[in-house]
TrEMBL record:
Signal peptide: none annotated. Residues 1-22 are annotated as: Disordered. Residues 56-142 form the Phasin domain. It comes from Mesorhizobium robiniae. InterPro entries: Phasin, Phasin_subfam-2. Residues 100-134 form a coiled coil. The lineage of its organism: Bacteria, Pseudomonadati, Pseudomonadota, Alphaproteobacteria, Hyphomicrobiales. This is Phasin. Transmembrane segments: none annotated. Keywords: Coiled coil. It comes from the Bacteria.
């Protein structure tokens, strides 16, 4: 029996409502199932993100392999062209009849080689810039996609 302060009435048999354990078990089960479902969704999203990242890395490594092969082939071609030009120049030097002809031939060869080296350097630089862009593109795209998805969520 309890008394309400300031009131002269007594409340008889005002007990708490009966505790129903079956409802509690159902509520706990519902919360657990909801938590399990959220965990499954999070794992699925994580798994998808990992697969996307793996594909991006595979693409990046494949692109790096392709561009490094291309750069190697261009470098070898430039070295071969320079070696052939050197041998051709050496043959021309052997046939020289005067010192003035030698200096004239040598000056022309050096000028031509400097121009060729400049062109080769520009071509390799352009290839390296393109390779850098190509190699970083898959990772950049994957990052931007993930960022957009996170902002949308």
């Amino acid at each position: 029996m309890s008394k309400i302060i300031g009131n002269t009435e007594t409340i008889e048999n005002a007990g708490s409502p009966a505790f129903d354990s079956s409802k509690s078990v159902e509520q706990i089960r519902a919360v657990a199932e909801q938590g399990l479902e959220r965990s499954k969704e999070a794992f699925s999203k994580l798994s998808s993100d990992v697969e996307t990242t793996q594909r991006a890395f595979d693409s990046t490594f494949e692109m790096a392999k392709t561009t490094s092969n291309e750069m190697l082939l261009k470098t070898i071609a430039a070295l071969q062209a320079n070696a052939e030009a050197g041998f051709t120049h050496l043959e021309a030097l052997v046939a020289v009849k005067s010192p003035s002809e030698f200096f004239e031939l040598q000056a022309a060869f050096l000028r031509k080689q400097i121009e060729k080296a400049s062109e080769q350097a520009k071509a390799l630089q352009a290839l390296m810039v393109r390779a850098g862009d190509d190699v970083s593109k898959p990772i950049k795209d994957a990052f931007e996609k993930a960022l957009k998805e996170r902002k949308a969520a």
